[in-house]
Structure prediction request, 1128 residues.
Amino acid sequence: MTAAAQSVHELIEKHRPVLDQALETIRSRAYWSPYPEHPKAYGENGSLSLPEGKAAFDALLGGRVELDQPGTDDWVGGEVSPYGPKLNVTYPHADPDVLLPAMRAGMGAWRDAGAEARAAVCLEILARINARTHEFAHAVMHTSGQAYMMAFQAGGPHAQDRGLEAVAYAYAEQVRTPDEAGWSKPQGKRDPLELHKAFVPVGRGVSLLIGCNTFPTWNGYPGLFASLATANPVLVKPHPRAVLPLALTVQICREVLAESGFDPNLVALAAEGAGEGIAKTLALRPEVRLIDYTGSTEFGDWLEANARQAQVYTEKAGVNTVVVDSTDNYKGMLANLAFSLSLYSGQMCTTPQNLLIPRAGIDTDAGPKSYDEVVTDLAAAVDGLLGDDARANALLGALVNPGVKQRLDAAPGLGEVALASREISNPEFPDAVVRTPVMVKLDGTKPDAEAAYFSECFGPVSFAVAVDSTEAALDLLRRTVREKGAMTVGAYTTSAEVTTSVQDVCLEECAQLSLNLTGGVYVNQTAAFSDFHGSGGNPAANAALCDGAFVSNRFRVVEIRREG
Amino acid sequence: MTAAAQSVHELIEKHRPVLDQALETIRSRAYWSPYPEHPKAYGENGSLSLPEGKAAFDALLGGRVELDQPGTDDWVGGEVSPYGPKLNVTYPHADPDVLLPAMRAGMGAWRDAGAEARAAVCLEILARINARTHEFAHAVMHTSGQAYMMAFQAGGPHAQDRGLEAVAYAYAEQVRTPDEAGWSKPQGKRDPLELHKAFVPVGRGVSLLIGCNTFPTWNGYPGLFASLATANPVLVKPHPRAVLPLALTVQICREVLAESGFDPNLVALAAEGAGEGIAKTLALRPEVRLIDYTGSTEFGDWLEANARQAQVYTEKAGVNTVVVDSTDNYKGMLANLAFSLSLYSGQMCTTPQNLLIPRAGIDTDAGPKSYDEVVTDLAAAVDGLLGDDARANALLGALVNPGVKQRLDAAPGLGEVALASREISNPEFPDAVVRTPVMVKLDGTKPDAEAAYFSECFGPVSFAVAVDSTEAALDLLRRTVREKGAMTVGAYTTSAEVTTSVQDVCLEECAQLSLNLTGGVYVNQTAAFSDFHGSGGNPAANAALCDGAFVSNRFRVVEIRREG
Prediction:
């Protein structure tokens, strides 16, 4: 056994229990994660504590992320933290004519290693990322603008969970067919026909990950690990404002691949210079056979229409709706919604945007509430939640880019402001742009209001849309999901009939529904192994995280059969 | 329990053992089929014997296939048997503006029935088709031109196997996620977060099956049953020359759906008038969200490029290659190849076309054989196989349409004829066009020869391509699969090194490989539950029959979660 084979064997032994638990959990959909989400869980057994992670991050600033990639022809990078500081980190810029062929060179050995070895290597990568969670948390914070705790959790263990989930699905999909099979067909009195068959999962080719600004790891890991685990090389093209978390990821991937005897070029980074726009060029390369993308509908649609040589998995814009019909926990509903609207300044693809509230008001456990009362009470709940600046900073984070701020500033012009946005100062980062959410009242029956609420206004902007009835809300919900897509739908109702109706709309229009959330689970949060992120069946995304469809077409099975 | 629910319950009880065995066999890839492939196995337990099947077929001639579909605005049909007679059968012509909405009406109840009930209904449909196998065999024979025995087996039990295989994959895919799950996340000293989650597989919308001329049932059933089992209505658009087998299929689907309490409009027929070309129109309808197609590369590419609202599964043209390097069973190789070239007059998407033979000859157990000897011996093997007219008729069937005859007639102009095509008379059907295969010698190094062998020449035409070496053969194989696609690759070699090389080419270019077949299994035949038909990874097809990728994106999973 070679040292590399020995190493792979050890990795399988080390990680098989976690893989098995992941496989079990994607079937049971119960709660589970191998990656602790408490900051104090880190600092022992080789993992970095918070101060160590901070120090590691600080050491990166002003330097180069060395990757030793073929075809490096320049060093690029211009990230500025949404909290103010320039990162001054540079990354290798690649000549795709050199890099892409080099990435394909290791495909054969990676294919021949088999699904279990690939899963074990992926799990080792995730384990090393996990050990550096506090370092990644700083990198995510200072590229996405997330507050530290969110960057730590969503950018750390929760992203790692989604990566592991993808590995589990990829592994399960590949081992549905055995490596070998005997086939013996009776022929009456004659000898049976006998064949020996071998089945080999083969990757499709280079997989291109086009990262996003807000959740570089959380939205990036599923595609990266699904493709790598199914025998494809992965080229990581980060958002120019959020390179660092993915560059560190690539560095760890390359390190683990090399150590376990594989070609490190199976994972590479494609950083770009200012305004270079290399995603379009890379997406059309013939070597690129898979693309994962999170971002605008415009570019997602362009990829789907033009990158025809590739399987394209997109998460695009959507308009998330909450139907407010009635509740038996008015206070809980307000608190839950207030948190959902505030978390990360509403800069989540899952944040509710349109709150559909009957003009005649709703029934609650606190008595009937008029439309105005609901809106006022919700505004007060948000104000209460964010009344303390320290808490507001911890929840809101910073606005990720000037586009969000522009939309926030323009929102008061769209209608009557029910909740005005406030500036919050951040003592630690005085240059951070921190704002509380704005909520605007709109009349759902007015055509000019539709221009506002019937498209995505990404950021801390929500619309309290007055509708004629719950039935009208459901009609609008259906039309919104069908035409604009939705990552999430929420509904509050005590009526069995309305429950059935809203479920029917979500089933028919293919949207994920959260009903009557009043506690510590929010419509904008999904848990790996249990919740699907998106449905893949409405215009907001053509894939869900994570299911069989997300992995099954990333490889094909080649059969070799012979007599005997 | 309603009568319909009772009926579904009974169907589940009746068919669950077969479903379970299918689920087990797609994992083991061993030999299995619930549908007998011996003609005499039929005639008892409600199934039709051969004479009964013939009588049932005869009774259809000159009549209408009544389907009682909404939107029927005409009766159309002009099938002429490749064996001579006009069928004079007419079918309902549909107004899609009426039919398509009617097909969607039953989707909710079909979805709510659940995966197991859908599988059971599909298996009942297949069981009823199976009982009428001899009737279907005549319908397939007189639309495809297959000889009776082949129409019986490939159009009967083997097609039913592929349908069942698709149902098994569809069922397995849907039950990967449970119907319900409890989720409890610990919160330290606080109460855990608890959610109840429901998961519902939902269909995508109307699935359009565009049938082919040569294998209306075998190539049609996988898509039909995969879509129906995953909660989609299916609109069946047969090839205008091969309507009857699919019209009967639709009739049985509607009958079983109605009897088990579902809307019969979940399956409907879209027959067309002469030259109407409705496939293009239907493929672009917004209701159509899935398309299965078998046919020309030109139209397959058009569908993939234009039917962007749908998931498109295509099987198109390819160029199948056999690499002849060496053999330890020369006689067996010749006999095996002769059969492969002759079966159904080479009118199979899996029939070898290019036989790559080293110019310097090959080593065999019968001593070295020159290129010319191999070609001459293979020609003699074909002649021997087809020397008896009765046997020739039983193997060849009839040419399916004038296009095939044109290509056959033109083939001698492409190079030196090594094996001339002969006319065979068919005493039972004097008007049938029955021809033995032609084999043409080509020099693989001559650019003008490439024009012939480097494109699909569908029908009983093969090329004995002289190549400089086995290495040159492998290069040409690679280029052919990469640029033209292939449903099958064959190779004969006694060399371990060549075996590895040809395997590498097939793994890298994603083609299904049969090695050293010398007995009763042929490169152009695949067995359901065990062999994949196509790989989905080269230009001949974007999907394989049948794997997870074939079913996983035909539905999406909608989650409904609530506290508690």
Remarks:
- The two ends of chain B are 30 Å apart (CA to CA).
